[in-house]
Design goal:
It is built from 3 helices and 13 strands; from the N terminus they run αββββαβββαββββββ. With about 190 residues, it is α+β, with helices and mostly antiparallel strands. The chain has a single domain (about 5-185), classed as Beta Complex (Beta-clip-like). The strands form 6 sheets. A 3-stranded antiparallel beta sheet has the order 7-12-11, with no helix packed on it. Strands 1-2 form a two-stranded antiparallel sheet. A two-stranded antiparallel sheet has the order 3-4. A hairpin with a 2-residue loop joins strand 11 (about 160-165) and strand 12 (about 165-170). The longest helix is centred in the N-terminal third of the chain and has 11 residues, at about 5-15. It is globular. About 30% of the residues are buried.
C-alpha cells in the first residue's frame, strides 16, 4: 500500500459527523459531494449543515471548496490532563491556516444536552461552553460553539479567532506541529 492510500484509509477509519457530531466509520461516512472533505452520517445532516442557522447548520456552502481544517483529519478533540478537553493538531499546520470553522448553535441542536455540566441548566451549559470572538466591527459576540468551546486558552497563544463569511474561525498564528495543543489568547 502506498503512502497516499494509507493516508486515505487512516482518514476514513473514524470521523465525526460535521452536523450531529456522531462518530462514524467506513462506509457510513458520507462526504460532501463538492469538496469531498466534510463528513456526515446522513443526507439529513448534510442538508441541515449546508445553510447557516437553518436547523443549526454551519453554513458549509459558504466555505465549501476553500482550504480549511477538518475534524479527525487536521485536528481532533482530545482529553487534556488538568484541563478537560482540548483541540490538537493531527498534522503539521502552516502559519495563517484556518484550523476550525464553526457557527454557533442554539438550544435545539441535538448535542447541546451532552455539554458539560451534564446535569446543568441551559444557562450553565452556555456559560461553560460559550465561545467569544470579535467581529469585523470590533464587537465581541458570545455564541455556543460545540467544537471551538474545546480550545484551551493561553497567554502565549499559537492560534487566534476571527470572523470570515459570517462564521467563527480559529487560525494559526504560527506553524503548528503534529499533536500540538491549539491555544487561543486568554480573555
Amino acid at each position: 500500500m502506498d503512502s497516499a492510500t494509507a493516508a486515505t484509509t487512516a482518514e476514513e477509519m473514524k470521523r465525526h459527523c460535521a452536523f450531529c457530531l456522531k462518530e462514524i466509520s467506513g462506509e457510513a461516512i458520507k462526504k460532501c459531494a463538492k469538496c469531498h472533505k466534510r463528513a456526515y452520517c446522513s443526507k439529513e445532516c448534510q442538508t441541515a449543515d449546508w445553510t447557516p442557522n437553518k436547523k443549526n447548520g454551519q453554513g458549509h456552502k459558504n466555505w465549501c471548496g476553500t482550504d480549511y481544517g477538518e475534524e479527525d483529519v487536521d485536528w481532533a478533540v482530545v482529553p487534556v490532563p488538568g484541563k478537560g478537553l482540548g483541540i490538537v493538531a493531527l498534522r503539521d499546520i502552516p502559519k495563517a491556516y484556518p484550523i476550525v470553522v464553526e457557527t454557533g448553535v442554539d438550544k435545539t441542536h441535538p448535542r447541546v444536552a451532552e455539554l458539560t455540566p451534564l446535569n446543568g441548566s441551559l444557562e450553565m451549559k452556555f456559560h461553560s461552553n460559550k465561545y467569544s470572538c470579535v467581529g469585523r466591527d470590533g464587537v465581541a459576540e458570545e455564541v455556543l460553539c460545540l467544537r471551538m468551546s474545546r480550545v484551551n486558552h493561553s497567554c502565549v497563544p499559537n492560534a487566534d479567532n476571527f470572523y470570515d463569511k459570517s462564521v467563527k474561525v480559529i487560525g494559526t498564528c504560527r506553524g503548528l506541529t503534529c499533536l500540538l495543543l491549539i491555544l487561543v489568547q486568554c480573555e
